[in-house]
Amino acid sequence: MLQLEKVNVYYGESHILRDVSFSMESGQVVCLMGRNGVGKTTTLKAVMGLLPVRSGRVQFGETDITKEATDRRAKRGVVYVPQGREVIPHLTVRENLQLGFWARSSASNATTEKAAFEDVYQLFPKLTQILDRPGGVLSGGEQQQLAIGRALLSDPNVLLLDEPTEGIQPSVVDQIEDVIIGFKNQRRFAILLVEQGLHFAARLADAYVIMAKGAVVAAGKTSELSAEEVRRHLVV
Questions:
Q1: 181 in the Ramachandran plot: left (φ > 0), alpha (ψ -120 to 50) or beta?
Q2: Which end of the chain has fewer CB within 10 Å, C or N?
Q3: CB 65: neighbour CB atoms within 10 A?
Q4: What pLDDT is recorded for position 96?
């Protein structure tokens, strides 16, 4: 479904991603792992079209989307929840969520707005209690629930999650974990997840991709992730 082939990305003249290649299937959960600064977030931004690919290819289904604009990728169902969550602070929770629903492609509009919102409220009941609050006054955990809920309302085919558990309380981490496991079991869409927590990644992901110095250095089934690879590439 999603494939990167020898993707190279630069910041100015600094070579950040070096021939990054991996693929994921529809409904699969893949965890992108590695120490800080190895290019994980840059990889997500390259998939989303937020950073230009200097060489290589990003393939979505049968289509080469390497040069497509971000909004075109979003219409295809490529959806990104960044590390900073990026809820719109002056809009209410309800208004932030509506932006997600309005971003749906015309092909997915058979679902009514009410039904789509009810699905999100079942996953994150807390949102129903804060619908009229501005996004900017929410706690980190509330913002993360809002950001993921907004992404789900856009009806993704591939959901890009950048460290969704960072800096939030354990109870919300458990809730997010349960939500992702539920989607994994349903195989509704693919999830590309950046996550530092080994336990979290091992429970959630079907497969892993480890990066170091801007390149892919190991990949495989999460159940086969070796202690040696953890020691070499993940343990600080």
A1: alpha
A2: C
A3: 20
A4: 95
List the structure tokens of 15: 């070579």
Amino acid (1-letter code) at residue 119: D
Q: Which residues of 81-106 are buried (b: 16+ CB within 10 A; e: fewer)?
A: bbeebebeeeeebeebbbebbebbee
Distances (CA, A) of 146 to 76, 126, 152, 161, 231: 22, 9, 10, 13, 35
- At the top level of CATH, the class of 2-233 is alpha beta
Q: Where are the domains of the chain?
A: 2-233
pLDDT tens digits, one per residue of 142-158: 999 999 999 999 999 99
pLDDT at 236: 54
Count the neighbouring beta carbons within 10 Å of the beta carbon of residue 26: 13
Pairwise CA distance, residues 144 & 89, whole Å: 13
* Rounded Cα distance, 160 and 137, in Å: 25
